[in-house]
Design goal:
heterodimer, A: 113 residues, mainly beta, 6-stranded mixed sheet, 5-stranded antiparallel sheet, globular, B: mainly beta, 7-stranded mixed sheet, 4-stranded antiparallel sheet
């Protein structure tokens, strides 16, 4: 089945710097890609979603890049601030199913003032 | 806007005990999900339900039962809690399938087995 590797597991950046999280997936037929954010004690909140025909998407200081050749998805937070500190997960639809998401293991981002 | 409510928020059980978690959503979403979150392992799908009375097994269904008796509610039962088990169970819902966009998550139910 689909496998998703996410790195790094922990990331600490000073305020104002950028933070990059990368996921690699195995199924070339994967069509939908997501980034979720989880704050302490809370559920996951969708940050951005992209379909496979999109290479780059930018929204509110976030940039998602999709490299289908290398099966790689990345999230770039530009000018990170302490409020961005959270766990970030990538997720992809998997196994030809429209219902099943396969998640990466998460990245704990800490933005220091 | 809608909300997903999970009860209880914290659940402490004994080894071998049957434990039930409940989830309610008022989005009027068709599809509901149960995920298990373990530290360092991401989220793994236990069961999902496409519509009322439908049940589909995820990747981690062994040791669990689920029930979708109403469109708005989805319950998960741990059939026999394992000693020292500790995990967070997340309920989610979506309009149709995951490919239609967003899954909305509850805040989670934290299970501790003594």
């Amino acid at each position: 089945g689909e496998q998703v590797e996410q790195r790094p597991p922990h990331l600490s950046v000073p305020e104002g710097d950028s933070a990059v999280i990368i996921c690699t997936y195995t199924d070339s037929a994967t069509a939908y890609f997501y980034w979720y954010k989880q704050e302490p004690g809370a559920g996951l909140q969708l940050l951005m979603s992209v379909f496979s025909n999109v290479d780059r998407k930018e929204e509110q200081g976030l940039t998602v890049l999709l490299n289908k050749k290398d099966k790689q998805l990345s999230l770039n937070l530009t000018a990170a601030h302490p409020g961005d500190s959270a766990v970030y997960f990538c997720a992809v639809t998997s196994g030809g199913s429209n219902y099943k998401l396969t998640f990466g293991k998460g990245t704990l981002l800490t933005v220091t003032p | 806007g809608g909300i997903i409510t999970q009860t209880p928020k914290f659940l402490i059980g004994q080894e071998g005990q049957k434990l039930t978690l409940k989830c309610q959503q008022n989005f009027n979403h068709d599809t509901m999900y149960w995920y298990r979150q373990d530290s360092g392992k991401g989220l793994r799908l236990i069961y999902y339900s496409i519509t009322e009375n439908d049940l589909q097994k995820g990747d981690l269904s062994e040791g669990y039962d689920a029930s979708r008796e109403k469109k708005s509610s989805f319950s998960l039962t741990v059939t026999s809690a394992q000693k020292n088990e500790m995990a967070v169970f997340l309920c989610a819902s979506s309009m149709e399938g995951a490919n239609t966009g967003q899954l909305y998550f509850g805040e989670g139910s934290k299970l501790t087995v003594l």
